[in-house]
Amino acid sequence: MAEKIFIVEDEKSIARLLQITLEREGFKTAIEPNGRRAYERILQEKYDLVLLDVMLPEMDGMEICKRVREVSDVPIIMLTARDEVMDKVEGLDFGANDYVTKPFAAPELLARIRGTIRRHKERLRGVEDTRYVVKNMILYPERYEVTVKGELVTLTHKEYELLKYLVENKRNVLSRDQILQKVWGYDYIGDTNVVDVYISYLRSKIDDKFGEKYIYTTRGVGYAIRD
Q: What is the pLDDT of residues 69-79, one digit of tens each?
């Protein structure tokens, strides 16, 4: 099956050129010029790689990359006219897999796309057996993915880390202090109620949405995930 590339580019001529080039090489494509809609589509749809321009209306590429990385490891190649070193560093720090500067040579871009997709697939093959299963929920620790009844659940980075910690200690009741130290860090300074708030977020997205209880409260002690 042909890989699908999501072209996030607001310059119509460049987006069209990329589409023609990629489809000529056997890829499927989709185009989105608006940053905010692109972010929503990345969360809702399945792509094998995202070509992400930096300068976009409503939400720039850096912000999109940062937000996507909280919930997904879909390969991202940043595409921009800017050639400043710090721009490249920022993009890579936000989780981009690669960074290509305009104007670019089509053969080089195609090679980078193929290489990025290949490395991503190799990494997934290496971790595909690593997973935690609780009832109808599957958590893939290396992919930062959670599915319930086969449906992908969108979680923030902190929600995912909390759920992962609970799942890794399935059936063990974890206190708020244990959760704070593990998920928020020993140097966290703030209200311990943050744990209760994030537990409610998880329950809303998992227990309530799918009509099945996963997170249990032991009054006065803490929380646990149970089969």
A: 888 889 999 98
